[in-house]
Description:
Blueprint: E1 7-18, E2 21-32, E3 36-40, H1 47-55, E4 62-67, E5 70-71, H2 80-84, E6 87-91, H3 102-112, H4 120-130, H5 146-159, E7 164-168, H6 176-191, E8 195-199, H7 203-209, E9 212-217, E10 220-222
Parallel strand pairs: 3-8, 3-9, 6-7, 7-8
Antiparallel strand pairs: 1-2, 1-4, 4-5, 9-10
Helix pairs in contact: 3-4, 3-5, 4-5, 5-6
Amino acid sequence: MDKTSPALVKFTDVAKKFGSVLALDKITFEVGKGEFVFITGASGSGKTTILKLILGEILPSSGIVSVDGINVGTLRSNDLPLYRQKIGTVFQDFKVLPERTVRENVEVALAVIGLPMDSWSERVKNVLKLVGLSGQINSFPSQLSGGELQRVSLARALAVNPKILLADEPTGNLDWDTSDSIMDLFEKINREGKTIIMATHNKEIVKKLKKRIIHIEGGIIRKN
């Protein structure tokens, strides 16, 4: 972590068990504001568990997960929706709504955070321009390529202006050229100040972007 940056995400001796399976074993790390960090490791190593802990989808078995100064483990269930407005999420399988247009998919995120409807049009226009989808605003998901669907997912995540962008294998269903263009977009977003934490096992992407790496192996942070 850049020592001049305050810790936006902080794990302190965090362990997570699922039954008798120890998914994470007392891991400690920090991610500073404005950083772009890769979480790498084989399938089942604990990458997605880390992202779910940041989101508050699951709670640590022990240790502390702190996000933007908030101890996530102490949040009540009715506090979680407001807390999650700090976080945008992008997934491998896009999770777009097939019966809604590109515009409507982004508007759903704005409705969830309670943004007044008279602000939607400008917000949607700006975020679709950022991800290069201005021309597809009224298209349905069935009319889009895989790369375009991931851009919709990214636009929806960014529309709420989150402090942190979490990405879980965002290029997993894309070919190399499309993956490359999506990663260029993530890098552009990071340069504009957004903190990005990305779980991936794509070594080529990690090698190309040369960002800080947190490598998980058997639930433990290892030197990569």
